[in-house]
Amino acid sequence: MLAQPVLADDTYDIFAVPDRPTLNFYGSPGLIDMPTGEVLPDGQITVGVSNFGGITRTTLTFQATPRLSASFRYVGIQDWNTDGFETYRDRSFDLRYQVRKEGRIWPAITVGLQDFAGTGIYAGEYVVATKTFDNIGSIPGAFKVTAGLGWGRLGSSGAIGAPFGGPRPAFDAQSRGGSPSFDQWFRGDAAPFAGVEWQINDRWGLKAEYSSDAYEAETVTRSVFTRKSRFNFGAEYQYSDRLRFGAYYLYGSEFGFNAQLQFNPKQPPTPTRVLPTAPIEPRPSRAAQPQAYDTAWSQNQNAAQTMRDRLKPVLEDYGLTLVSLKVSASSAELRMRNGTYRAMSVAIGRAARAMAQVLPASVETFRIVPMQEGLAQSAVIMRRSDLEALEFDPQAADALLAVTGFGAATPDLPGAAVNADLYPDFSWSFGPYADPSYFDPDNPVRVDAGLRADFKYRPAPGWEIGGLVKHRLFGNVGDSARLSNSQLARVRTDGILYARAGDTSLENLYVLRQWKPGNDVYARVTAGYLERMFGGISAEVLWKPVASRLALGVEANYVKQRDYGGLGFQSYGVATGHASAYYDFGGGYLGQVDVGRYLAGDVGGTVTVTREFSNGWRIGGFFTLTNVSSAEFGEGSFDKGINLTIPVSWFLGTPGTRTVNTTIRPIQRDGGARLNVPGRLYEQVRSGHRDAIESEWSRVWE
Amino acid sequence: MMRAISLMVMVSALALAGCSSNPNGGDPALAASRALFDSIKSRAAGAGAPAGPPIRIDVTRKQLNQTPGPVMQVIPDNTQAQDFLRLIARRDDSNPGTIEVWQSSDDAQVILRNGVLVGTKGLGGDIRSAEAEAAFAGFDGQGGGGQRLITIDRTNGTAQTVAFSCDMTQLGRETIQIVDQRISTYRMREDCSNGQASFTNEYWVETGSGRMRKSRQWAGPTFGYIDFLRLQG
Q: What domains does chain A contain, in order, with CATH numbers?
């Protein structure tokens, strides 16, 4: 199990100003072309764009844990003129782990694997140490002195021998790449590198380094640029809190620049503001006014309807929707829909205050059940007297959590007064869209843009009929000349043919039904045009107790490949499905394993690890291994990628539940491809379960 | 070419006008990027011309007499904009001191216990809850100080409870002017710290009644300090 103190989000101190290292040309904490031993603040996301000698590197780095960071890089090298490329473009992944934090005597020490799974043009490993010296004599600012030892690319100039033996296989531009190259790491010649950074003040910094990179592939075998020196120099300027620019003179011949963007999901541009509710009006004491606690009202046949009609407008004021309400003399169960607040704890707290405002004094126990499209997620149980006593407690949120219960919600609530306005419900939206397509060797970013329209019709709880149509106005995704060369069924690589088939496309059109067969069991069936490339039927069952970290699910689908254009189907059909296990490690770390049969008929498993921040940011990585060999799979060897979810409320500073989701794959092939089905259950269910509610519990009184 | 331009115009018009039956519908990426552009625009606009000092009203006795109920004047450091708060609730709970909930003109709330700030709502980066007893124990003009737990919104969805140790310095009697009244107060300064984090509050408490009439208090690292002046009630 992962150790809690190392991972917990709670270690973040709002008063601490974490040291923010500057980045090198590889987008890692570093000098100019060489890395340093420093680490980014936990959760930091950086984007670095650097250019020199016709080499452009764009790197996305994520500090996944306080010590471990991962980078994804896209590089373009002009004047390559071999291997069939004029400009060579490649993707690469790095991992860095800080072995030791900087102490009074010890420097910070980091071990890095650069381009550890690509075709290997940047393959190199290093161990590097950095020590900070403040206030040396009367010189202003701080000096950061770095020394390290590099292998592979970083051991190619000024080598001192091969401490861990050799030889090291050479870089091969024609290889498929993609697999971790264990056999190369720390093998072959090693060379020292060093440098110093002088941070003169908050704005300006100077850097100088001795590079151990010979740039053999660029300057010896090819003539991308001319390397005349091992020394690099540069000056950097912090333009704003998040943006830094640098100008450099490299390898005795080239000028270069570097733009560094750094931000942290934990620090929104605008803090979210929620309009407060009125404070709770405490009930009179039972001893002083026993008549206030009379229960005769509950004998009335229409008690639930009366209370529903009083509660509904108050909930609406608070940004919530009443689904149903059941009352007795001493307790009430409210089922509500939260379409406003990303943090479910805010919705729960506001629902509780609305109930305290409206319901007769004799109602002491509140059961609040958040609903997600017909699924009752959980029951949060609070005592009204606790709400009254703790609203202004010095530790109001923690004290309330200690006396709040979480339980399973029954699938249905017989005897409740239902909000009849909710069904049938028709909603739609219309607007522009842009679909980017990345990493075409001829044109790294292609995009289609146009108009989209979607609708959802919900005739009854748990039923949904939905559809999405796009009309392309312009774009160049279909212009790509790189047609599929796949040896597998072309379940994903025919994307260009779909793009060429026509400007108007039906992205999906489906009927969905989801329900709860039991208190902890959720089920879904979806049928129709499920996604752009496949249509058919999909069924899923998920087991997820409210307080459990573990969830288990099974999904079975039978789908046929759709025609490139129009509504017909091609001959290819496949039964695909997975058994899935989901685990919440705590501290915002989520794991998922799926085992089953993929779209091309290959059999294998997918591992996904995700870091989720309390405010809804999610960054995850995944890889899929199946019985398709890397030769059959083609470039990249196996399927892998990065998932990114960004809550819109983070930008807006106003509450909201919308998110921007994107998946970046270095390359999309046909092996290990999963069907995209509207309405998968796990995320729908989890948002209203105990761990998700507790993670932002401090907002319960908002 | 003309066709391409007119399409561009059409799409950018729609980008601004993308519509939906539900305010939470539509393309979320678009909403996020629009917010970014707005913030950049407002920053660019603000950077050029420094705004003059915000308009201040000197409240008169006549104005106060026409205003029903208690009135608190506040001036936050960050905006320097004057506002007048209404008292919307007063509560006694099991903790010492009386809670007052004050509401601003834009419906944010400030929560005071015996005049000491113990919470804010709707400001962003709010103080979620706080202990106040160590502060108002010194309101008799003697003593005070001790530990105060303060829970602060980290703005990332979580909160941090910080145990501040606070020293109360009695600065002696001071007479302050509120509108047309001269009020005799004890003036005191509270210095609170926890590691690198620290803040300093100042209180002017009416002698006799022990009621706080004027103060300068810290509302967390995001919002900063607020000057309070209890004009009436």
A: 4-263 (2.40.160), 290-421 (3.30.300), 425-458+462-691 (2.40.160)
